[in-house]
Amino acid sequence: ALALDGLSLLDFLRREHIDAELFGLLDAYCLSALGAPTAEISAYAGVNFLSEINAPIYAFPGGNGAIARAMAARLSRAGEGRIVTGAAVYAIEPAEGGYARVGWFDAQHPGEPRCLEARWAVVAAPYFFAGRILRGIDPAATARMTGLRQGSYLVANCCFEGTPQELPYDSWALGAQSFSDAISATAILPAAERPKDHGVLTVYAPFHDPGAGRTRLLTEDRAAFAAPIVEELRRFMPEAFGGARLAEVRLTRWGHHHLIAAPGIVTTMRALPKRFGNVLLTHSDGQGMPAVESAIVEARNAVEIIKRG
Ligand SMILES: Cc1cc2nc3c(=O)[nH]c(=O)nc-3n(C[C@H](O)[C@H](O)[C@H](O)COP(=O)(O)OP(=O)(O)OC[C@H]3O[C@@H](n4cnc5c(N)ncnc54)[C@H](O)[C@@H]3O)c2cc1C
User: Fold this and answer.
1) Contacts of 88 (CB under 8 A, 6+ apart)
2) Using a 6 Å cutoff on CB, does residue 274 contact ligand 1?
3) CA 196 – ligand 1 centroid, Å
4) What percent of the chain has pLDDT over 90?
5) What phi, psi does 42 have (nearest 5°)?
């Protein structure tokens, strides 16, 4: 794995004599799924992700948010009111006597900072951000965290009314300027369970230059983003419109959408400490690959550490 990790995916594809005709599609895939084209992605991460093409598709109703909702429901079974939402953590540090200290504020009252101490603090925020809020630890470690690259991304959920068309799970629009691919939200449902009078197409629009993308996401208005996506959707995927009417486009901005799994990412993440006293880092970044299974592995590792005490 580490030998592959040191190579770019593009070098690996060339080494394996993969037909160069496929490189355009593979670049689009990597930009959409991993945040950068094949030349900027670890071959290990790329091969890991590409293996999904031959694997079954697992999707939750409404997407990965279903996992967070299930976890929240489970926590609530142990007693209501245990989760504080709408809160921002601005500082975390190992504290005296085996405790951890957390500084946070309610987003509605940002002028009223609060502090709490706990036996453990599990930091599930991305590393580039954790590196900015961790206090009292080796600055070399936080510098490596904040040095990780993050992509930027726009997601457009296109809501159709009327008879939805039969579409593949994921369709690629090679040559389109405003988006890379589109997932039919209901494609994996058995035909009998698919809605008959509406459908959703989730359109993925990663930015090639993450910094420029962030600036655009902060400054441009929604209509300016939606219009070229809809225009190119009509051109590249006219079948999506078949007997249906596009009723609404819901946009979501991802300023720092996830870690870019650059060559050497596994080596980099292995070398980073994940425990500082009783403060544990558990974001999926810890596995070097932006996927829900990475989040689950990191969470399980943290549970083991806490259980050992
Ligand atoms: C558009 C998009 C599509 C994706 N599609 C897939 C997919 O199909 N399959 C897949 O496996 N993965 C997908 N991913 C990758 C996805 O990031 C991971 O699968 C998963 O969300 C990682 O979970 P996580 O818990 O590690 O981190 P995250 O989901 O990144 O959660 C981190 C949380 O920390 C919170 N946070 C950060 N800083 C603070 C702070 N200071 N105070 C309080 N809270 C804070 C954030 O608000 C966030 O809720 C996608 C990502 C994006 C952006």
Assistant:
1) 104, 105, 107, 110
2) no
3) 31
4) 86
5) -60, 135
Q: Which ligand 1 atom is the nearest neighbour of the CA of 153?
A: 1
Is 291 touching ligand 1 by the criterion CB < 6 Å? Answer: yes
Task: Give the integer Cα–Cα distance in Å for 179 and 111.
Answer: 39
Q: Rounded to an integer, what distance in angstroms lies between the CA atom of residue 192 and that of residue 197?
A: 13
Complex-level ipTM beyond the 0.95 threshold:
yes
Q: How far apart are CA 203 and CA 240, in angstroms?
A: 12
Q: pLDDT tens-digit profile of 122-165?
A: 999 999 999 999 999 999 999 999 999 999 999 999 999 998 88
Q: Which fold has domain 153-254?
A: Polyamine Oxidase; Chain A, domain 2 (3.90.660)
CATH superfamily of 84-149+261-308: FAD/NAD(P)-binding domain (3.50.50.60)
84-149+261-308 against 153-254: fold identical: no
Supply the residue whose CA is at minimum distance from atom 35 of ligand 1: 125
Instruction: Note whether 87 and 107 are within 8 A (CB).
Output: yes
Nearest atom (ligand 1) to Cα of 254: 53
Q: Cβ(254) to ligand 1 under 6 A?
A: yes
Question: Ligand 1: does its nearest atom lie under 6 Å from the Cβ of 290?
Answer: yes
Residue 257 CB–ligand 1 contact under 6 Å: yes
